[in-house]
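User: Could you write out the 3D structure of this protein bound to iron/sulfur cluster? I've included everything you need below.
Assistant: Certainly. Input first, then the structure.
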Amino acid sequence: ERQAPGEVEDNNGTMFLGPSGEVLNKLLDNANVSRNEIYMTNLIKCHLPKNRKPKQQEIEACHHYLDQEINIINPEFLIPLGHYATRYLLQKYNQKIPSKHDFYKLYGTLHYIHQQKIYPVQHPAAPLHDGSLQPVLEKNYHKLSIFSHPCKWAPTCPMKHYYEKGLLDKKWRELYCFGDWESCKRYQMEEQNKYHEDWMLPDGSYDEILKNK
Ligand code: SF4
């Protein structure tokens, strides 16, 4: 999901044509994600003069369409591209908007907000303005490749057992087992054949309540 279509895209009815579209295609190719596998949409539904930034009143006029698309499609992951789409989703789900200085910290991190997984990434036009951003975009978009399937340990992991016994918050399973399992400390230690306790949580912290359960 991104902010608004460009002029060529508006005329063609297709999203992400032109230079930023080429960047996006490469980022998706690297992540082995085809455009056919994802639903792409805009926050603002028509072209803004000179590709200027959307005004608040334009967002307010258009966001109902996006809200309806989200309701109908009910996506497992929402992936806002860039500042405006990310900020809108935070507002939609009643989250605090970080300061301009800290906003970038949202990118490349999976969030679980009101039962919805949200993974903000930088807009694909970003490296066209600042080439030094290319590696971090590649890293963040590459993560999309792992969202298409759960962690290989999900059927047998003790976290499943704790969850089914009502001892574990669903967010752990959604954020890691069915989300960013690559970032799970348990997963990483399994891959390195390192020992860890059964009650270690995916972020590496311990929940003593789970001990001996
Ligand atoms: S807790 Fe970690 S290792 Fe276990 S299933 Fe979830 S992601 Fe995989």
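The chain has two domains: 7-146, 158-210.
User: Perfect, thank you.
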